[in-house]
Amino acid sequence: MSGIFISFEGPDGAGKTTALNKLMPLLQKKTDQEIVLSREPGGSPISEKIRKIILDIHDEEMDPRTEALLYAAARRQHLIDVILPTLEANKIMLSDRFVDSSIAYQGGGRQIGTKEVAEINDFAIDGHLPDLTIYFDVSPSIGLSRIKKDHEGAMDRLEKEAISFHDRVYESYEEIVAQNPTRIKKINAEQTPDKVVQDALEVITNRFPNIFNKGE
Fold this sequence. Notes:
This protein is an alpha/beta fold. The chain has a single domain (4-207), classed as Rossmann fold (3-Layer(aba) Sandwich), CATH 3.40.50. It contains 8 helices and 5 strands. It has helices at 16-28, 45-55, 64-88, 99-109, 114-125, 140-150, 163-179, 193-207; strands at residues 4-9, 35-39, 92-96, 132-137, 184-188. It has a 5-stranded parallel beta sheet with strand order 2-3-1-4-5, sandwiched between helices. Helix 1 crosses helix 8 (193-207) and helix 3 (64-88) packs parallel to helix 5 (114-125). It starts with a strand and ends in a 9-residue tail after the last helix. The mean pLDDT is 93.
């Protein structure tokens, strides 16, 4: 496959989605390759159906392992329907979350084991890791305060979890970043939105200078 795969990770309220919407046109100006933007859980019809089940605030009795398996299932379908076809077509794949989210949220946040969740997802992704991952670093307290403000109090099932859950997610992310220094690059997501976008743009263009060189 000749395309490149970039994922974007971070705790709730890190501002990934907002930054990605601003980042994508800036990247597109710098390359002739088509860029495809997607998200997880979701990104394809079947995966979006699974997303609704996972994030439904009424599914409070969902077992943590069931949740982890549903995320892995949605990821597998997203990989088959969107990610692999994009890469095979020599396009650039940007995904709002990928496998690291499950390891942090279900493995760490739900306390069912980062190793165990990683193994579930190893089966799902079959070796297809991103070429680069941008990690948006924001403290749980700041991230959750942003969500409460931006969502006007409406939060999904995971966002509504106690601060202790989000602290564990954050700690797990820090471990994942430390274990993958080549693939994962951290940026400070507590800066202004424009600065966050600029930092992400620099990381990507510096990593792939032969691809993002248009107009330079």
